[in-house]
């Protein structure tokens, strides 16, 4: 499936709960099916993003960690 | 000629930096505090005003009475900062020159940033808001009471939790608890950002019948339908809604292109210098640091800035750095409290809520005026942590 990254959110350096709040805000203004990429450095964002996606039903397409930067790709439902 | 230090903002951080510099350098420094109101507010007290446990009159003092005699006070509003010319333009049309600049301009409450917030909700983050909420609580005879935050970052992260716990007790004492539902709207999936504090708080909330609504980032309020909506798309009906309004940094920081989009100053987490500027420092709520916006943060940052400016004036190498130290009391109601003490490297390990910490907060609230702004609180006072190793 093709993935068009509609938005990239740079959340590096922010501490929780800012990454979640900013992602929620960005996803709010997107259309269903659109995909967002979020970059964060707060280790707490890993469980937070997983739990947030589970609660809201949005799909956590992938997540990875490279050099202390966590990358989350989320598709809006 | 003495070095000219201008401090913008006469809150806890600005006042303490000014006093510490005057104390350590005497005639070698000329310190001026510039503040638009000339009044110093003790904001932690608003919580108690809202709950009818304190009156507002002890929460504000003339800034002049808190400054050492050697420090000047200018009751003026800064409208533009010129880092290269080392001047500040004031609302009155005058301008002021500086060799070193300390930005302690705090945070602004932006009630209008959330549709419906002003008309549909109450708050306790300013004295007028706290007094309005106190009157509304007096009229409240039961119903759905929701407490939440309408924007991040906000000052004093534990305050919404404290208010929730304390208002639950308030309703019980008033005899309307059985007709009420108390809910905390949390932006995360736990009661508080800090995991260890959440673990401590959640069982107390359960025991007291306080509901936790998770991942509720407030988007808007419908005052006529009494509905609050989250960015996550959830809607909740309420009878009394208590929200912390969104915060922004000072307008002058945005106008002077020193702050980011939210007006927060890009600040070095250890030296507290702003951007690439060697002679401009920021502290307290005004910074973009990933740490609590609280008076306690400013309190621990102030000696670092005073010491670094003093070193530069004396031509010696600065040694002090800020390790991210914060200390917050957290009231849990029923006359008990806990304490969160942490820094950049060490998350807090809060003790079980007890009467001792509640008492400590009570004493601190009363002792504030005679200790904190003057730098009289000992470094190793109960509740503070050992000093960081200088970096």
Task: Describe the protein's architecture and organization.
The complex is a heterodimer of chains A (77) and B (391). With 77 residues, chain A is an alpha+beta fold. Helix content of chain A is 30%, strand content 36%. Chain A has one domain (5-75): Translation Initiation Factor IF3 (2-Layer Sandwich). Chain A is built from 2 helices and 4 strands; from the N terminus they run βαβαββ. Chain A has a 4-stranded mixed β-sheet, with helices on one face. The two termini of chain A are 15 Å apart. The model of chain A has no long low-confidence stretch (mean pLDDT 89). Chain B has 2 domains: 3-106 and 250-327, FAD/NAD(P)-binding domain; 109-247, FAD/NAD(P)-binding domain, CATH 3.50.50.60. In chain B, the strands form 7 sheets. Chain B has a 5-stranded parallel β-sheet with strand order 5-2-1-9-19, with helices on one face. In chain B, strands 13-12-11-17 form a 4-stranded parallel β-sheet. A 3-stranded antiparallel β-sheet of chain B has the order 6-7-8. Chain B is globular and about 70 Å long. Classes of the chains: A alpha+beta (77), B alpha/beta (391). The A-B interface holds A 13-18, 20-21, 24-25, 27-28, 42, 44, 48, 51-52, 55-56 and B 151-153, 187-189, 193, 195, 214-215, 217, 219, 230-233, 290-291.
Q: Gap between N and C termini of chain B, in Å? A: 31 Å
CATH architecture of the largest domain in chain B: 3-Layer(bba) Sandwich
Order of helices and strands of chain B: EHEEHEEEEEEEHHEHEHEEEEEEHEHEEH
Shape of chain A: globular
- Indicate the radius of gyration of chain B in whole angstroms: 21 Å
Share of residues in strands of chain A: 35-45%
Number of strands of chain B: 21
Assembly category: heterodimer
Largest sheet of chain A: 4 strands, mixed
Return the structural class of chain A: alpha+beta
Distance between the termini of chain A: 15 Å
Give the strand line-up of the largest sheet of chain A. Answer: 1-2-4-3
CATH topology of chain A: Translation Initiation Factor IF3
Instruction: Name the chain pair whose interface involves the most residues.
Output: A-B, 19 and 18 residues
As for the CATH topology of the largest domain in chain B, it is FAD/NAD(P)-binding domain
**What is the average of the pLDDT values of chain A?**
89
**Low-confidence region ranges of chain A:** none
- The chain-level structural class of chain B is alpha/beta
CATH class call of the largest domain in chain B: Alpha Beta
CATH superfamily of the largest domain in chain B: FAD/NAD(P)-binding domain
Low-confidence stretches of chain B: 380-391
């Amino acid at each position: 499936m093709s993935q068009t990254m509609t938005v990239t959110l740079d959340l590096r350096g922010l501490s929780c709960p800012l990454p979640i709040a900013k992602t929620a805000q960005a996803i709010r203004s997107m259309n269903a099916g659109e995909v967002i990429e979020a970059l964060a450095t707060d280790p707490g964002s890993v469980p937070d993003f997983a739990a947030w996606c589970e609660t809201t039903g949005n799909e956590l397409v992938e997540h990875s960690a490279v050099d202390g930067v966590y990358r989350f790709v989320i598709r809006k439902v | 000629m003495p070095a000219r230090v201008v401090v913008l903002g006469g809150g806890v951080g600005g006042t303490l930096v000014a006093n510490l510099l005057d104390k350590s350098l005497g005639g070698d420094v000329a310190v001026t505090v510039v503040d638009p109101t000339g009044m110093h507010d003790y904001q932690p007290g608003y919580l108690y005003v809202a709950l009818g446990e304190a009156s507002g009159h002890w929460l504000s003092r003339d800034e002049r009475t808190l400054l050492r005699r050697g420090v000047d006070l200018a009751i003026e509003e800064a409208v533009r900062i010129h880092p290269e010319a080392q001047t500040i333009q004031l609302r009155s049309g005058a301008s002021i020159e500086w060799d070193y600049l300390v930005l302690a301009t705090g945070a602004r409450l932006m009630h209008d940033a959330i549709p419906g917030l002003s008309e549909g909700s109450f708050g306790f983050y300013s004295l007028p808001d706290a007094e309005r909420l106190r009157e509304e609580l007096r009229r409240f005879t039961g119903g759905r009471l929701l407490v939440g935050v309408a924007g991040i970052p906000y000052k004093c992260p534990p305050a919404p939790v404290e208010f929730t716990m304390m208002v639950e007790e308030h309703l019980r004492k008033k005899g309307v608890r059985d007709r009420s539902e108390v809910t905390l709207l949390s932006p995360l999936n736990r009661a508080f950002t800090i995991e260890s504090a959440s673990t401590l708080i959640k069982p107390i909330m359960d025991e007291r019948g306080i509901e936790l609504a998770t991942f509720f980032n407030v988007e808007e309020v419908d005052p006529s339908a009494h509905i609050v909506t989250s960015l996550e798309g959830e809607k909740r009906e309420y009878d009394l809604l208590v929200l912390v309004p969104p915060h922004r940094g000072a307008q002058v920081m945005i106008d002077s292109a020193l702050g980011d989009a939210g007006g927060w100053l890009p600040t070095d987490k250890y030296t507290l210098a702003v951007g690439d500027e060697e002679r401009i420092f920021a502290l307290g709520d005004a910074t973009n640091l990933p740490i609590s916006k609280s008076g306690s943060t400013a309190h621990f940052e102030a000696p670092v800035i005073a010491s670094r400016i003093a070193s530069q004036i004396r031509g010696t190498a600065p040694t002090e750095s800020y390790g991210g130290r914060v200390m917050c009391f957290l009231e849990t109601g029923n006359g008990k409290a806990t304490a969160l003490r942490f820094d950049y490297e060490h998350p807090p390990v809060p003790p079980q809520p007890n009467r001792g910490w509640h008492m400590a907060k009570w004493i601190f609230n009363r002792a504030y005026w005679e200790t904190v702004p003057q730098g009289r609180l000992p470094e190793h006072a109960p509740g503070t942590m050992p000093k960081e190793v200088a970096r």
